[in-house]
Amino acid sequence: MENKEQLERLAYEYQLLQAQAQLLAQNLELLTLGKNEFQAVKETLEGLKNVEEEKPEILVPIGAGSFLKGRIEDKNNAIVSVGSGYAIEKSIDDAIVYLEERIKEYESAIAKTQEALHQLEHKLQELAQKAQQLQQKQAMSFKVPKK
């Protein structure tokens, strides 16, 4: 009976850790998407620095894969989101530095999340091994009643 209770406890703990791992994996996906978005903006601004035209023509996305033609009036400055619905104007170089800092923050958060996920996966493997050992003990101690 003791083995059965231990197996039930291990199964419950395994389910909890599995749920935590799933949340961490989802968080990791969101962090990666966020980092990629900042990276794309940074690359766009870096590309803009190399454009010689004073007011280059661009395509402005308006949704559903549709665009409007437009012109960049000021290619030396960008309005950058600083969070909580606020945005500020920065020079292109300052905006790139700001974006690089945000990317580094994302990379740090990604690394920490990956490490936490790795530790959880290790714990899950340990629990699975313990459960397997208990099941083997239980199977070996099972006796067929004599008639």
UniProtKB/TrEMBL annotation:
What Pfam families does the annotation carry? Prefoldin (PF02996)
GO MF, one annotated term: unfolded protein binding
Q: Where in the cell is it found?
A: Cytoplasm
Sorted alphabetically, the keyword list is:
Chaperone, Coiled coil, Cytoplasm
Entry similarity comment: Belongs to the prefoldin alpha subunit family.
Output the InterPro entries linked to this UniProt entry. Answer: PFD_alpha_archaea (IPR011599), Prefoldin (IPR009053), Prefoldin_subunit_alpha (IPR004127)
Functional summary from the UniProt entry: Molecular chaperone capable of stabilizing a range of proteins. Seems to fulfill an ATP-independent, HSP70-like function in archaeal de novo protein folding.
The record's principal subcellular location, in a coarse class, is cytoplasm
Which superkingdom heads the taxonomic lineage of this protein's source?
Archaea
Q: Tell me which stretches of the chain form a coiled coil.
A: 96-140
According to UniProt, the name of this protein is Prefoldin subunit alpha
Can you state the subunit structure given in the record? Heterohexamer of two alpha and four beta subunits.
Which GO cellular component does the record give, naming just one?
A: prefoldin complex
Signal sequence extent: none
Gene Ontology biological-process entries: protein folding
